[in-house]
Design goal:
Length: 398
Amino acid sequence: MLQIGLTGGIGAGKSTASRRLVELGATLIDADLIAREVVAKGTPGLARIAEAFGPEVIGADGEMDRARVASIVFSDDAKLAQLNGITHPLIGRRTAELVAEAGPEAVLVYDAALMVEQGSQARFALVAVVDTAEDVRVRRLVESRGLTEADARARITKQATDAQRRAAADVLLPNDGTPEELVARVDRLWAERLVPFEENVRLRRAVRGGAPVVVDPDPGWAARGERLAARVAYAAGSVGRGVAHIGSTAVPGLPAKDVTDLQLAVRSLDEVDALVEPLAAVGMIEIPEIVQDDPQAADPDPARWRKRYFGGADPGQRVHLHIRVHGAPGWRYALLVRDWLRADSAACAEYLQVKRAAAEESGGDPDAARYVGRKEPWFDAALPRAEAWAASTGWRPE
Ligand code: ADP
């Protein structure tokens, strides 16, 4: 099972994209629709609302009088909480039913118009955003929904901005062209990414292998790191003691392998057992054979360098998740090296040369062991310099 979020500004083409995903085999979870269903005419939900707020909230046609309910709860927080106390559990139960019915191989698409406004993006394994220029959206809303231009623009202004939605997107689905072009993009997303991603999660398979290729730095790496870190933090819940983007893609301007390295801090590695399922739900799968960082030569207690290691299951973006004990030397080291490289451009340039040589030498090495092995001596020699920098600047981890 895979749970993804789909959003887009009003008129962007979200419904068009979600219809296509359903044709391809996805299960649509439409929050608005469910919220209406659980209080539809004749439902126990509606009866309970009438009990709480009086029979006049049901109109002559047997439907809920939405305007009346809205006016009752509008300026009364206690009443609003009472209403939510009735509807939220019903919505939760109905959603759980739909998820259960969809079965273990389902790709669930949460149609969430206000995902970014509500800040719910981190709970999904992937977020797709239908992205359409504002003027195009206005034109389509005027033509297809009979809105005036002023009305369309007013609604757009009330929503999150395009930039905010783009920052939440793992996948952008531009829709300035024809509907056929959007459908073709959705088809590619489904076949090349969602289907293999779902299978990887279900079979507990992280994406691995591939020769280490060092590419030019991408200005989007920082935002991608934040997005993925938020997902890990959501999955870790109260077990997590902070998630950081580490590694080369966290150093602006440094060419690197196109991989997001993340570090999740925990109190104890045993606690991670409870995170295996929640992390799988956001697309991170444990690779149990990797359990140890290379301790710095001088450390008398190599066990302090233990970690648990997860890899992303999304074939569209590589993620390495290192889970380490908060305060342990390996945890501190990852943050120290990142911050030192961020601060020292000469060290960065040196490291880049070593990486390039390592990538070249390791050629087609699929598990990159030789690549990593080739970089280690440089790090061993660099550590005293990083420590000297930390001492002189008063650096602290986090
Ligand atoms: P949303 O659900 O994001 O508000 P819709 O999918 O309902 O947007 O699209 C808004 C309107 O624009 C609909 O009438 C839809 O048929 C139309 N539409 C969507 N994509 C295109 C496109 N590429 N070209 C022309 N019209 C489109």
